[in-house]
Amino acid sequence: MGAGPVGAQLAEFVHAVLPAARRGDFWGPTFEKFGVLIIGVAAFAAVIGLVLFFADRTPKRIRDVVQLTVFVAPALLLLLIGLVYPAVQTIYLAFTDRQGEWVGIDNFVWMFTQQEILRVLGNTLVWVLLVPALSTAIGLAYAVFIDKSAGEKVLKSLVFLPMAISFVGAGIIWRFMYEYRAEGYEQIGLLNQIIVWFGGEPHQFLIESPWNTFFLILVMIWIQTGFAMVLLSAAIKAVPAEIIEASRLDGANAWQQFWNVTVPGIRSTLVVVVTTITIATLKVFDIVRTMTGGNYGTSVVANEMYTQAFNRAEWGQGAALAVVLFIMVLPIIIYNVRVMRKQREIR
Amino acid sequence: MSTTSAPSEAVLDSPLNSKRRQRRRRPDGAADRAKKTLTSKWATAGAIIIAVLWTIPTAGLFITSFRPEEEIEGSGWWTIFSNWGFTFDNYIEVLTTTGASSANLGSYFINSIVVAIPATLFPLVLASLAAYAFAWIKFRFSAAIFIGVFALQIVPLQMALIPLLQIFSGVLGISGTFPAVWIAHTIFGLPLAIFLLHNFIAEIPRDVIEAARVDGANHFQTFFRIVLPLAMPALASFAIFQFLWVWNDLLVALVFSGGGVDVAPLTQRLAELSGNYGRNVHRLPAAAFISIIVPLIVFFSLQRYFVRGLLAGSTKG
Fold this sequence. Notes:
- The structure holds two protein chains of two kinds.
- Chain A is mainly α.
- Chain A folds into two domains: 6-102, no CATH class; 107-346, MetI-like fold.
- Chain A has 15 helices and no strands.
- The radius of gyration of chain B is 24 Å and the shape is globular.
């Protein structure tokens, strides 16, 4: 094994994978799983098909009602059972203990008196302050820099690519960036290697509190910048040429043009980008889970909620944290609904 | 784009709107002017620095995944030329070895596929039906209900996890099976899907729908013969977004899949391997790329739809 010509390695890979795949312990369960897949899809199709078939043949008198029901009822029913009822139930659970006994606001008192949980809330605040601001700023700068340049598409893809990678995958990618080896040993993480090249001593980026939170935040910024960039780039291209032209004739320099013309022109898109990234940041779970597991003082609300509820069976405390998360996104929900109602009135 | 403010409006409204937008976007746009003045050497330098910084982490891990175990643990990927080594061993190991302590990613890969396909199809079908009703069937409270569905998009799914798990394990007894994961993803995908498809379906010209109705078509016929074919771009965008969302999801998988090799998807196994970091240093790069490869293929082959779906759906979860 080890080093060898690429072709030989490829052949070896194929020879190793095929027999392994032929073994019973892979194919048996796999066939079974695809069986479940096919049966599941077929059953779903059959139910939908039958319902449509019979709804189509109901007497004319009640047909309108039946048709409407068939169109909206399945989706609404699922939402009621799977989202609305559980959300209400979670609010109730937030006032109970692990046995389900009513405890009033104890869980919230617990939350705001435990040093550990206060830290979690503080971390979440830091995340929400930094990630939207920095991702949007870097995304905007990059969008302006590459606008109309040669190879704009490729440059866009490079920064947008992390968006396609799962948070778990991104977490692993960055664990290798942050990898630490004691001083004197050869570093295998790029960041520590750079520090060592400049004569510093290596750091355990993910363990040394409180800075470790910032290194987790960096991963989220790495992911979200591409999203901000793509939206803002499209918005910049939609700013009318006449306005820019006018400001140029007025003698505005590039910097003034950017602040006085471009930024106001893309304001609404900026709002969309910032709110969207804010929501994503509030709910961040996977990155913390994969990189530190919430240890070393890096936990955030979404991660702590999971830990309390599903690892420690403290259902009430977990539910209370979920409610806090909900309260934090509530202003954004209200804002969005108001904007949406305005738009529907215009239409 | 600058006229919209709801997150999802911006992207997937109607075929007519996008044409209008294209017309507005002249070659001699705002950006062109900005470029002449802003695009100095500094801007180019800034762009290159950001592009390089954003690419290095992924590229580094990709190179690492093909290095022999002792090289991964002994030297950085940037020394690849002085510590040459190229091997598929890591990929072979994580894909083919089975047993409790090995990565066993082959099985988890299958699980990801079995989870993702129905979890994409089900919400697509149910949401397109509902979206049509909200757009073209008049009924009481339709506007209020629709706004309610829209608001559900942003509600953190953490709000629903505990009671939904109780329903699945207590009432239905399906916790830890594929159907449990499918149903959970279907429910969590519905608000966005309904909203997105409604925006598109509502923009189909009234004449087209009415012509069909005058010809005697009922709602089902109108839906299947007129609306579905016209809504294909929106359906494709949502399908791709939902597929990637499900494929990359960890939280729903952790709660509803039971966590074993029978049902749990790749992300869950990756998170576990990452939890035992020390023992898995040489396996993780290859393992990560096995889970990333499907989204990357989707990304590069369907980037246009992917971008649209992503932009429209980024508030989900």
